[in-house]
Specification:
Chains A, B, C, D: One of its GO terms (cellular component) is cytosol. 4 copies of one chain form a homotetramer. With 353 residues, chain A is of the alpha+beta class. Helices cover 26% and strands 22% of the residues of chain A. In chain A, the strands form 5 sheets. A 5-stranded antiparallel β-sheet of chain A has the order 1-2-3-7-4, with helices on one face. In chain A, strands 10-9-11-15-12 form a 5-stranded antiparallel β-sheet.
Chain lengths: 353, 353, 353, 353
């Protein structure tokens, strides 16, 4: 109820603050007998970790996951998988200046008002550091869903958009550049833009597109737990996300039915896929694709007014080492959350079969 | 797990197919001692019901709710509120032509593949008729949340957009026209557009904007059950919805942090509200606003190819009486789902206080 | 959360007060494709209904179930099954004398204090009438679990015990007498005892034993949702239940390990079965058996002191038509709850297979 | 769903095997602002830990809890409390002899059949070692419920019963002897009996009685989540438990209504309390009391037949260091589970107030 669990059958519960002893989680419901590739899990964490390139925060955290249970001789046992990631780089002094200050467009104010107390160091629980635990769980879900492919990539940074449809992209190129845009020309522009923004001490938003291939027909549960509704919730639960659309999305709202309908082929596939691989909340076997909007990071290295706990407007300037654009590091998080949603419905779909 | 329950504390479970005996639901968790205004509940149902104007389906259903339990001498008792809405206008013969046919961009195919059997009459469970039960529950939630205002309105039909920000609108005008757009000039254009589309036997998409005022600080549960994540899921669970954005939404993804941050006033309110009333997944006391995209209705009164259960492509034409644009009737559904989300978090927030 | 839902995958939510319009429920999660035998469902309801014999309440209720959804052409569709049972015999005047009185050992006082308001007619929601909805759902669960046998029977009434172990009983004899004890000699004594008690205007307690055969190995989820823990909760949720034990039960607490251990046969079965068919919370393929204790009905047709809402001790005498012993009518309820628990774990066990 | 979470609002999820790296858990839903007494938590763990006296297992584990999150400057923050307890004494070699053997009346066989794989060391997940995590969470729940007293004590060992009713006991004497029976004379007999059993290489069962005082009126949720139903489930989820009864329990099933009814005093309290402090599943303000039956530990230091994974009956003898009677160490576990149940309903009850 307190919101730290995701999923119904493949269930992740996370804990941990940005500057506490450790973050981590429990995965409950991972089937037994799954031979885990631990390197593949760490690889996903490395894609998310700070300090990996010049366009992300320069904070250093090794982000090494330690598994405490649920795995025996390399294989899942069906019991809960507990894991931790130590917080090694806890420069808490960086944050003493915000102890009594609510930074604009951060969660300082709302946490304080809701809980009456908060761990102000690095945003505490509201920090995106928590998402590292999601990446661990998502990486395991991916391994369970061996035949399903999940590809996320940067589709815009500020006003720079990757105009090509996903069908024209080579997903193997996503990791070929530090902004994780599979089109090298657009990637270069995005990188240049982020560097420029960083130099200004400013930040910028962007969007991520995610494509899921080889999803079997039948995943998703009408009426409230439609597949896209749970994907939407999953994405909106990621820090800084402001919007979600799938298939034709907001563009579809401008169209006519005669343009928008996806006509069938004889094998049940469809000629077009404005539906985004989902009908009535249930996967139809076509590619699922969706787009996620991220706002610019709120911490900027410029002077700004803030509010202190005594009700005074005070001037402050962001310190610490922050991302000028969250999108490159959010790619593995989007994939992880997509994997968790698909894993959940995939298990649920086994029940009736 | 099978997806027919919404909410954690103020919990709605619905049942019913478009052409079965009845639809209905159970509301579990409504506090005791609430004096219900039954007329206000029926009023919301009337806003959703078919046949209410010339731009919606001409099907006739009285959509009268009958309460079976949980209310004693007009007051809620804290026990579950069971209710039904009879299906009186079950022109099932209208649907015999689709018994073995999967209509394009409908849920016929996915239901058949998932369940192996389906009630094909009027879309069965996948019909938006189910949302009438949500409207009943939402109307009760609204009464529980007496001081919170929820205003949804039509913000676009096809390419016709209401350009004014919500702050410039008079919400009392929403019901002054049949398209439920509070700006009469834009409303006229929208109505004309829908009539034109209807004449073509076609359909058109649109968007709904929803504004929630007077939400106390502190609603929402980090990290997975962020207030906007649950709002997003709620909206995406409504039939035909393709996208959700709140606050700055997809536009925010183009902005810089220095432009996007909402600076504080001394009282904790903010000068701007690109955040959309939510920080870190928790309400901050400012207006919550979001936008929902609806695709065009899939049933068109034009000849289209469809697939039959033997794998043949067959020509079909929509019969029955369908909406040329779902948006006007979806307004009370959006409000109802918003009320359910807020009610849930509002109860949850009582726990710690 | 408000306690009106049972089960995780095969989920029953019930509503309804003793003297409201109707009681009923929603079964969510019943797999599609199950051809329902409606007569078998009504048969179970008839076993529970009042007025069926001279040793139960003489109240008359036809208790006819009406299904509203989830079944199409006699087959479950995988969508929620909504159903109602009308309250036809609502002699509410029988209860005006308790409007402001809290009867001893009834739930009048606790409901009033918890909710501030209560439907006092016939106990309202606290009446065992609610269990009719459980019987409907349990009857469907039984049909899903076609190869699993669930046999409950009266094993004691007051001080009269059926001394034979269940292995020596012929379960086909349970329905051969009105007290539902499969040993005719003991049954006669029990019936005589109940008649005697009834003549005194008094009531008496009893126990029910339940045996479940052919449960596959592997049902139950450690560590909190052990199979016997959920069976125990299911039984304890039935009105008037005061205790639950399975396998060796309370007797096992007096034994030594060397006496209590069940040694294996080569095929994995065990020579003895003090474990009651469950090890570590998981079924082991042996018979599951347990015993449930029911207190005497609180309503007696004798003068008793009660408390009124003004804090006065007042004399009252039970009116209405009540059961001198609940056990005979509780047999189908115990079976229904057992079926719901097994159905739930049976579905859950499909996930990993 | 996989059974490793307990509670709805005050939610504990545990992980960990007997001989893995660590056990631990996440408490989600503990209110913010609670100043924790960490010594009191460790004290409860010490009451449960092995090696504490001559009548329990001589295994040595310090069982030191480390908190990783959710506490800031000694106060709970409302965010999840993650914690671990390291497994320091992992004499795994003790268990190589059971790698391919299913011990009688242990969970080896059912885990192997359910999951296809198992961590055989010390019973893996099925070991009662997991309950240490429950004790941590229960100790925190106790601190939240500051005015509520929870007292468990040993009420029988084998055939030796403490005959006095709980009202005649001095709970401050529970910790005055190693068997945790508050009557010194009976305690001496119990201790002697356990020593004798231990000398035989055998084990023995027993019962624990638990009394909860000062519970406010109104806790518990009808109809399925009755307070005693959740207490029952909580107790039955503890390793080795075979039965649960509350109030009059199985004895109540022998009684007449005229004997069993608890008559009111003018203040709403009752003259007798056969109801055990609960009416209709809701606490009535009187003492709650219940009794829990524990079977004898299955591991005995005697030769026994067992089954190997090839289907052969093999002779085996328990090694390792085991408890001759679990009851003394189970006292804090019973209290912890009771605290978790009460905490959950206590929070839930705040919602409507």
């Amino acid at each position: 109820m307190a919101g730290n669990t995701f999923g119904k059958l493949f269930k992740l519960t996370t804990f941990g603050e940005s500057h506490g002893v450790a973050i981590g989680g429990i995965i409950d419901g991972c089937p037994s007998g799954l031979k885990l590739n631990l390197e593949a899990i760490q690889y996903e964490l490395n894609r998310r970790k700070p300090g990996q390139s010049e366009i992300v925060t320069q904070r250093k955290e090794p982000d090494t996951v330690e598994f405490l249970s649920g795995i025996f001789e390399g294989v899942t046992t069906g019991t809960p998988i507990g894991f931790t990631i130590k917080n090694t780089n806890q420069k808490s002094n960086d944050y003493s200046h915000i102890k009594d200050v609510y930074r604009p467009s951060h969660a300082d104010y709302t946490y304080e008002k809701k809980y009456g107390v908060r761990d102000y160091r690095g945003g505490g629980r509201s920090s995106a550091r928590e998402t590292a635990s999601r990446v661990v769980a998502g990486a395991i879900a991916k391994q369970m869903l061996e035949n399903i492919e999940i590809h996320a990539y940067t589709s815009s940074v500020g006003e720079i958009f990757l105009e090509k449809p996903y069908q024209d992209l080579d997903f193997s190129q996503v990791e070929s550049n530090i902004v994780r845009c599979p089109d090298s020309e657009t990637a270069d522009k995005m990188i240049a833009r982020i560097k420029e923004i960083k130099k200004q001490g400013d930040t910028i938003g962007g969007t991520i597109t995610c494509v899921i291939k080889n999803v079997p027909v039948g995943l998703g549960e009408p009426v409230f737990d439609k597949l896209h509704a749970d994907l939407g919730k999953a994405m909106l639960s990621i820090n800084a996300v402001k919007g979600f659309e799938y298939g034709s999305g907001f563009c579809g709202a401008k169209m006519k039915g005669s343009e928008h309908n996806d006509l069938f082929n004889a094998d049940g596939s469809t000629k077009t896929n404005l539906s985004g691989g989902i009908q009535g909340g249930i996967s139809n076997g076509m590619d699922i694709y969706f787009r996620v909007a991220f706002k610019p990071v709120a911490t900027i290295i410029q002077k700004q007014d803030a509010l202190d706990s005594s009700g005074n407007i005070v001037e402050m300037q962001g310190k610490g080492r922050h991302d000028p654009c969250v999108v490159p590091r959010a790619i593995p998080i989007v994939e992880a959350m997509a994997a968790l949603v698909i894993a959940d419905f995939w298990l649920l779909n086994n029940i009736n079969n």
